[in-house]
Amino acid sequence: MTRPPRARRRAHAAWAVYFVVAASATAASGQAIDVEQPSTLVVGSPSGGARMDRVNGARTGLARTTLPTSGLHVEWEASLGVQTEQAPLVDSRGGIYVVGARGEVVMLARDGTERWRVATAGSRPSPAALLSDDTVVFVETTSAGGSAVGVRDGRVTWRTHVGRGEAAPPSPLATDDGGVVVATGGDLAILDAQGRERSRTTLGEMIAMPLISAVGRVVAVTGTGVVWTWIPGAPEPVRVASFGSAVDGSAALVDDHTLLAVTSGRTHLTAVDLVSGAVTTRASSHGALWSGSPAIRGSLSTMVAVTPASELGIVLDPTGREIARAVLEVRNLPSGTDAGAAAFLPASPTPGVVDSSGTFVFATAEGRLGVAPQMTAGDGTVELLATPCPQPVGVAGAKGASPVAGIAPLSEGAFVATCRSGAVLAVVGASSSGESRPQHL
Length: 441
Prior knowledge:
This protein is mainly beta. It has 2 helices and 34 strands. It has helices at 5-21, 394-398; strands at 73-79, 89-90, 96-99, 104-108, 114-119, 129-130, 136-142, 145-152, 155-163, 173-174, 180-184, 187-191, 197-202, 212-214, 217-221, 226-230, 238-242, 248-253, 258-263, 268-273, 279-284, 289-290, 295-297, 300-306, 310-316, 322-330, 353-354, 360-363, 369-372, 378-379, 383-384, 404-411, 414-419, 423-428.
């Protein structure tokens, strides 16, 4: 039976409330439960240092905990023996999850001890997400199409076909009810915690960057910069606007309805209003290229700007005015170099993270980790960690990518970084109370 339009609108509104608030996992469209078998459903907003790519579903790179400000040192190092292209995930206990380039999943305890690992036989895994029950989910792509893979407690718990697999899939979006939204190609699907499909839709273009949660909807940005929104359960997505060009890295939610992204060949910071569809250029760079995936703290955006002679951390206010900067690293260029900033910007820039005080943790193109404390006004100070990530070899090295695959908040006064070589570094500051237990790579 076909619902009348008013009934469909009520159903879609109910889905929006369910998606944002997740009042109960046993709602009409929730997870199926076998009443003959005991079941444990973990719901609620997932806690932890970083459960998704760029820390959270808004993709802001904003740490819930404080980041170290000085006296940086490696608390411990671990070598996983697998290459990775992803930032680590961190649960509420400080457990660290790393997905390897061939679908391996490794879980480390807060002290760096390996708890378990599993080979999923996954191919070209997307950046992962950690669900409410600590299931690691990523999307793999094969010649047969795309599949979402769920891993928990050292074993593959489910694998669900979700669509086409001809493009690199974006990072999934964990939902407050314990489920996940996944994408492959132009297909979107919402799955429950057991990998069962609840709803799906198809866009007309390939989705190219992490899915975002905003205005009660899933937000998807395509490879050409077109912004779509979808209420899970609705039959069709809605085209909202376009950034006007491909987005570098990931867009981020700067308030409850505004997306911000680096566009136009890394020269513009562009805002899209998800309610009105208005598109505005917030700022333009002069003599530098901006790395994508801005870190958002309130209304302020922190980014890395690359010039032929240096890498800079900059903070922009809502009008696009620069209010703070710090020199992250000075480049020693060979004489006669005139190729400009583009020749020295890594193919895969490593986005930084920021905390509520404005402290910015970053990675340089050469693989050094550092911190710019409390970038709030004027010129900031910077401290670089003496131990860099090793230079990647093989395919990763050939791409010209930064040796640092990703950074995530770990605990109070600490962060964790993954190196493309397979090394994991937990970094603390001088005031951290964490016990140091270094390991050799």
